[in-house]
Amino acid sequence: MAVGLLPDPYYWWEAGAMFDLMVQYWYYTGDDSYNEVVTQGLLAQISEDKDFMPINQTKTEGNDDQAFWAFAAMSAAELNFPDPPAKQPSWLALAQAVFNEQAHRWDTTRCGGGLRWQIFTWNKGYEYKNSISNGGFFQLAARLARYTGNQTYADWAEKTWDWMETTPLITQQYNIYDGADMSNNCTVPIKLEWTYNVGTFLMGASNMYNYQLGGNIMQEVACEPQVSCNNDQPSFKAYLSRWMAATTQMAPFTTQDIMPKLQASAQGAAKQCSGAPNGGTTCGRTWNTATWDGKLGVGEQMSALSIIQSNLISKVAAPVTADKGGTSKGNPSAGAGTNTNPTPADPILTRKVTMGDKAGAGILTAVVLGGLLGSTWWISFGN
Question: Are 249 and 319 in contact (CB under 8 A)?
Fold first, then answer.
């Protein structure tokens, strides 16, 4: 029996799923006693083209089968499973090879798009478009988007999801049916529901959520994705970073929501300051990509410095006030010309503040802060 296969009656795809499970076993337990066997098994099922299209499967391999092997490689990349030998393709490269091949197989001849179940014309199922093949492609694209930060993968994930929604394969209640025959343009679904169909779309959707939020990484959504930021806009995240951090001092109840975003954004910014010219002191703009994006300027430097130092907010004292530690002396008439007295205010604005006033203002301020935090997440951390 060839290395990397299970004995009959088990199909090729399930061996790939098993190796994925063994990668996760190592991740959860730290037990590396099976790692060598797992690596041998995975690498034994690649072809000369450095993909999961081995000669022993050329007569029967389907898109869903290939996806399960790609999942194993993707897990190995994501979980930092020990790399293959130097002359072998990396785990990430193997997953990318499967993605590229399946993207090339996207079929618009019927049903408006989607992947066929089978790869080869002679196999039963070539005229069938099923949820596990398309869900596998969706999941792989989403995980690659999250891992690499490459928008192209995210675009394919969205394209696949959008296509599924044009078919009866996924309902408004998120029932996911097995598939549909192409002879009727995929309009009549086979209403079998399998757990792994729901699972693959759940995995893909969660990775897309994480990618679109940048894993809580800040993004100037009005210009970064389109690469249209002008000279001013790259600095805007510097101010948001500063003011989000300061908000945790003024309203401590916001800390648990704000700090994970500042921490993740700082890590992303640090990566954008790595691999750049000038010994890694030049920082890029797109914090949700793992390597320097080639952008540089005053705004990029300010934003990187601001987000990184904002993570020190818990280690410093809150800002002082005039009657609590402040030493700077004021002049209420400054800017008023020759008028030496402040402009009289309405008595309602100068009366003594009561405890009831403070309580009401506190409640109102908390509500407003909650709304502003929500809009901040929406504008700066993705849709």
Answer: yes
**Per-residue exposure over 304-331, b if at least 16 CB sit within 10 Å of its own CB, e if not:** bebbbebbebeeeeeeeeeeeeeeeeee
Structure tokens at 17: 């799923």
pLDDT at position 361 is 54
User: Is the separation of the CB atoms in 149 and 286 below 8 Å?
Assistant: yes
Q: What 8-state DSSP symbol labels residue 84? A: P
Instruction: Tell me how far CA of residue 77 lies from CA of 39, 93, 147, 195, 303, in angstroms.
Output: 12, 9, 9, 25, 30
Q: Residue 67 and residue 13: Cα distance in Å, rounded? A: 8
State which H helix or E strand residue 180 sits in.
Answer: strand 179-181
Q: Which of 16, 61, 60, 10 is nearest to 38 (CA)?
A: 16
Strands 128-130 and 179-181: antiparallel
Q: Is the peptide bond before 9 cis (omega within 30 degrees of 0)?
A: yes
Q: Decide: pTM greater than 0.70.
A: no
- Alpha helices (runs of H) in the chain, residue ranges in sequence order: 12-29, 35-44, 63-78, 91-104, 131-148, 151-166, 195-212, 236-250, 255-272, 277-280, 298-310, 347-350, 355-380
Residues of the chain with pLDDT under 70: 1, 212-215, 280, 337-383
Q: Is 266 exposed, middle or buried (0-12, 13-18, 19+ CB in 10 A)?
A: buried
Map tokens 């090879």 to a residue: 97
Q: How many CA atoms lie within 13 A of 30 on its CB side?
A: 0
Give which of 122, 68, 125, 61 is closest to 95, Cα–Cα: 68
